[in-house]
């Protein structure tokens, strides 16, 4: 059991201390943007007492997606790159529709 705890401690130290650099900070900032989009959506839905997707949701999605794509490109992770790049297409398309049709209606 002591060996497992020691291995876990070494792993966590390597991941969170040894590998810590500016790119890791960028990754955490990007993840913060992604988390905020759900917080914004949750608050808007609670206030409206129905499911609502506010415009801010899409802007946090674009911010988080762009930063996470930069992080994924740096890390050379093809799965992460593909996921973030395709997500950005959806986010920008939704903002385009909002600009084209005026303020987004609640759904």
Structural account:
InterPro entries: Lipid_A_biosynth_N (IPR011499), UCP028440_lipidA_biosyn (IPR014546). GO terms for molecular function: lipid-A-disaccharide synthase activity. One of its GO terms (cellular component) is membrane. Keywords: Membrane, Transmembrane, Transmembrane helix. This is Lipid A biosynthesis-like protein. The mean pLDDT is 90. By secondary structure, the protein is an all-alpha fold. Helix content is 83%, strand content 0%. It has one domain.
Strand segment count:
0
Q: How does the major sheet shape up?
A: none
Q: Rg, please?
A: 18 Å
Shape: elongated
Protein name: Lipid A biosynthesis-like protein
Domain Lipid A biosynthesis N-terminal: 26-97
InterPro entries: Lipid_A_biosynth_N, UCP028440_lipidA_biosyn
Keywords: Membrane, Transmembrane, Transmembrane helix
Secondary structure topology:
Layout lengths: L1 H17 L3 H27 L6 H21 L2 H24 L6
In short:
83% of the residues lie in helices and 0% in strands.
What descriptive keywords fit this protein?
4 helices; elongated; 107 residues; mainly alpha
């Amino acid at each position: 059991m002591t060996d497992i705890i020691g291995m876990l401690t070494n792993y966590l130290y390597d991941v969170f201390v040894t590998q810590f650099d500016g790119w890791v900070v960028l990754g955490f900032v990007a993840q913060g943007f992604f988390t905020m989009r759900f917080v914004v959506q949750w608050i808007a839905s609670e206030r409206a007492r129905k499911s609502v997707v506010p415009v801010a949701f899409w802007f946090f999605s674009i911010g988080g997606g762009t930063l996470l794509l930069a992080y994924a490109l740096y890390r050379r992770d093809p799965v992460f790159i593909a996921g973030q790049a395709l997500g950005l297409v959806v986010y920008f398309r939704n903002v385009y529709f909002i600009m084209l049709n005026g303020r987004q209606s609640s759904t």
